[in-house]
Amino acid sequence: MPRFLPLSLLLLAAVGGAQAAPTPITIEQAMADPDWIGPPVESAWWSWNGQQVEYTLKRQGSPVRDTFRQPVAGGAAQQVADDQRGTLDAANRAYDRQRQRMAFVRNGDVFVRDLRSGALTQLTRGNEHASNVAFANDGGVLWNVGNNWYHGDAGSGATALVAQLKAEKNPADAPKADVLRDQQLHALETLRRDRAQREALREQGERWRQSDPTRAPGPVYLGADVEIVDSALSPDATHLIVVTKPKGFDEGRGGKMPLYVTESGYEESEDTRERVGRNGFAPHALWLVDAATGEVKPLALDALPGIATDPLAALRKAAGKEPLKGNRGVQVMGDFMGGGIQWNADGSQAAVMLRANDNKDRWIVGVDAGGRLQNRHRLTDPGWINWSFNDFGWMDDGRTLWLLSEESGWSHLYTQSGSGKPRALTGGQWETSAPELSADGKGFFFLCNQQAPHDYEVCSVDAASGQVRALTDLNGVEDFSLSPDGSQLLVRYSGAYLPPQLAVVPATGGSARVLTDTRSAGFKARQWVQPQLVAVPSQHGAGHVWAKYYGPEHKEPGKKYPIVMFVHGAGYLQNVHQRYPTYFREQMFHNLLVQEGYIVLDMDYRGSEGYGRDWRTAIYRNMGHPELEDYQDGLDWLVREQQGDRDHAGIYGGSYGGFMTFMALYRAPGTFKAGAALRPVGDWHQYNHGYTSNILNTPDIDPEAYRVSSPIEYADGLQDHLLIAHGMIDDNVFFQDSVNMTQRLIELHKDNWSIAPYPLERHGFTRADSWLDEYKRILRLFEENLK
Fold first, then answer.
1. Residues near 39 by Cβ (< 8 Å), separated by ≥ 6?
2. Distance between CA atoms of 320 and 639, rounded to whole angstroms?
């Protein structure tokens, strides 16, 4: 059960006693269902009055999530009973300008909470899911259900349809020219009269609709040749920005993944994604819609700087391809990229974030109510625009934009008035992320790693002075939210062996009041090997590479220790930090390895998150090469500084880590005597478009990048011991990657390798028995070959 603890006691419990020996752990315990650790706080939000917080925890032995209420002032958390769930607030909410009311969606329905009295008003009650809730300028509430937009009055409870968007042909449009039709109407008076009467009825009905304020507006027809991707209604409910893509756009041929272990007893199949370079992304188009009249105006993007310039022209020419003609395709950046469409407070203009489909450019454009476009900001990158750090919005004055940009080489926060040069509010060799405007609109709260790449805190900045302050001293902040009155921060934070927990901090900074500790008694009682955060010197021009080192507290003089090196997945991910790791099982496995006499190094190789733009794009068109250099430098450091045994080194990792295990064994034979490639990419031709085309472009115009970056091209170099482990229903990195690699190793007559397939596992294993089987094999691989 969650408990209220002083911060000092909780942090002491998290790190364990300084002199205590690590508690022995077995492979069975390390790979057991993580329920034995205790549930992390997965999501949390403020109650309406700021006196309580509400959060979810996974139920022991069940996929069900329960909701708890925790008093901020102290006391025990209480589980919210089923018949009390109607009193809950929600994590995603909108505030009115005075911050006296908040609106949110719970279970698909729209609610408004009065923050002065706590009164809760429900505006919808149905089985359709509302989204994008916001306050209107008249004090009402706006939301959409699919392509329909609504306005609700929290006082009367009345709701009204504001706009109904349809990707259909307007029935009032004149038909296409047809000689036979024209002849029929010319020759037959009855047909002419029938048509005239139908038109008269339609026109009369439309006049009545427009003149009768009790009637809902008619549908807005965008044409039958498009699909609606997104839309956003202005706060004055007069205009919409609508995003469409061509109807039936062919994104390329998908695949069929076989399912062998099924409830039916028969083999089945599942549709899977397209591969990189098939047809790419569907281009988006923008439209301005008048909500009252239904008038639709296309928004031309010709004036975007660089829109007609092909940054891949040289590669295209070298590949014998025709140059691009006209503008590059663009997409409106949605939730995954952190952007989209943002209206200012009075609805006089919107800001729209666009990315080129080749992801070399990002634009923020302003759109006014007359449909005029103005480029507000352009970010261009010869590598690729980051997936993260694309947040933006409006300051309270309705004229000034705020945005994140990597233009300095690091993600920082900027403000911009009109089309002027952006003004940096933060700066330096650290990263700003997840900004939130303060309640008074005079500054921002955000995540920062200002003190060190691995130390994440909540910081604030005053928009006028640019003064940056660190508000927390928790080292591993995951995320935060501002209380309804703007005076407190609810902080979700974690540690190396502390799953995410909750604390409250004054918005001006100060001591943290810890609210939860959800770890089990058994997990809290254990002592762990604490990872040492080290900066490994690079001999390959990278400066230094941050890493986690796991080793015995006291090493025997003169003894050489066998080495295991871990490679995190995702490529662009940070694992060297003070938060609870994504790889918590692997961290326990590293404890076991130290217990068995190994030393372990886990590195944030080039391409990892947290170290700026140049670090991220160091792998452009050259995946697997800079990263391998970093691991070779890490091996040298272990030998030089930690009594590592160069002749007994191994490597392992999953996904991108599996890819790197292939590259290490194939491209540097003899360096690592054993490696385990888990769910590995073997050939980048097989991976998805969104990720791969950013880093390697597409195979048709950049075949060399795919050749030098794909492990299957180097498989002849294998001479050491290799284990391949892969879920057979992996819909991220297909099992086909490992099957193709198996065939290639057979063709090359290679020895000392094996493959372990897992019939019921996808990319991230979910079953404890699969985890155990996989890691017993990895441990045996290292025990047999590294000692």
1. 57, 58, 59, 60, 499, 518
2. 48
pLDDT in tens, 359-418: 999 999 999 989 999 999 999 999 999 999 999 999 999 999 999 999 999 999 999 998
Residue 525 has pLDDT above 90, yes or no: yes
pLDDT digits over 137-153, tens only?
999 999 999 999 999 99
548: closest CA among 565, 573, 527? 565
If we measure between CA atoms, which residue out of 117, 63, 64, 65 comes closest to residue 91?
65
Confidence of residue 44 (pLDDT cuts 50, 70, 90): very high
Phi then psi dihedrals of residue 274, to 5 deg: -80, 160
Q: Quick count: other Cβ atoms within 10 Å of Cβ 696?
A: 28
Q: Which residues in 438-510 belong to E strands, given as ranges? A: 443-448, 457-462, 468-470, 477-482, 488-495, 498-506
Q: How far is CA 603 from the centre of its chain?
A: 22
Indicate the DSSP class of residue 174: P
Cα distances from 645 to residues 475, 546, 671, 677, 785, in angstroms, run 33, 21, 11, 22, 13
pLDDT confidence bin for 743, thresholds 50/70/90: very high
Helix (H) or strand (E) run with residue 728 in it: none
Listing DSSP states for 125-161 in one string gives -SSSPPEEEEE-TTS-EEEEETTEEEEE-TTT--EEE
**C-alpha to C-alpha distances, 416 to 185, 244, 425, 428, nearest whole angstrom:** 59, 28, 11, 19
Strands (E), 263-320: 268-272, 285-290, 296-299
Q: Give the separation between CA 733 and CA 744, rounded to whole angstroms.
A: 18
CA distances from 357 to 282, 287, 307, 367, 736 (A): 8, 19, 11, 21, 27
- Pairing assessment for the beta strands 349-356 and 341-343 based on DSSP bridges: antiparallel
CA 174, chain centre distance (Å): 45
CA 255 to chain centroid, in Å, comes to 25
414: which residues sit within 8 A by CB, 6+ positions away? 402, 403, 404, 405, 422, 423, 424, 425
How many whole angstroms separate alpha carbon 569 and alpha carbon 643?
A: 27
Spatial separation of the C-alpha atoms in residues 331 and 321, rounded to whole Å: 23
Cα separation, 546 vs 414, whole angstroms: 28
Closest alpha carbon to 2 in 47, 61, 51, 54:
54
Using the 8-state DSSP alphabet, how is residue 34 labeled?
A: G
DSSP-based three-state secondary structure for 598: coil
CB–CB of 753/722 below 8 Å? yes
Tally helices (H) and strands (E) across the chain. Answer: 14, 44
pTM check: above 0.90: yes
Residue 206 and residue 220: Cα distance in Å, rounded?
A: 13
